[in-house]
Amino acid sequence: MVDTHCHLIxxxxxxxxxxxxxxxxxAGVKKxxxxxxxxxxxxxxxxxxxxxxxxxxxxxxxPNEAAEQSLTEMSKIIDIAQSNxxxxxxxxxxxxxxxxxxxxxxxxxxxxxxxxxxxxxxxLLIHTRNSVDDAIAILKEEDxxxxxxxxxxxxxxxxxxxxxxxxxxxxxxxxTFSKRTRDVFKNLPTDRILxxxxxxxxxxxxxxxxxxxxxxxxxTLNFAAGTLEMLPEQLEEILDANVxxxxxxxxxxxLL
Length: 256
Ligand SMILES: [Zn+2]
Hints:
By secondary structure, the chain is of the alpha/beta class. It is 44% helix and 15% strand. Strand 4 (88-95), helix 4 (103-120) and strand 5 form a beta-alpha-beta unit. Residues 5, 7, 35, 91, 198 line the site of zinc ion (ZN).
């Protein structure tokens, strides 16, 4: 089992990261994609992977952090992305819900991430909120086709377009409490879905209001398997194969 999107670099894990990782291993989590959301946390993600080999660092600037200085910051992200440990570019994307930064600034920054992913032949970890259509349009314009729409919250119609473009769709704790998400999820081809926690955020049903952590991915796995009327072991096997495909260029150098 791989947690394909989480933020162990978040200060909420400062005190007990060892314990959190131990619980994850005990739960059967073999790898964790650990995504930065600004320069500091991207550096931290690479640093954590030096200490814990089974963590897969991703580097990027979250759209909520898109600000005037972020184009300069982006040059630092490009530097950090030169580490061969880095498995993906992100978290990046567009967030029109929170409106922390102007749409144009977010779009420009998103394009910089796409160009970086393209130059490094790495997948993108894409965040969208009320912005799926614009994200699709930009990815089409840039003609880039590798990555995952994480914590997918769009419609089934949008999902079909995204799958046609070659992307995966990531689902986390929201699946366990949102019927709308579940209705989209259960109609998707299983060879294009991924599971994630997005820890410390978005805990699954049994842990709402608490800090999320990678071990809880098992609960989402069980729930997802139930929704698809499969055994968790069957679904896990499919998901592991999906992860291997998404990170195939990275995986050639790092056993998945
Ligand atoms: Zn995230």
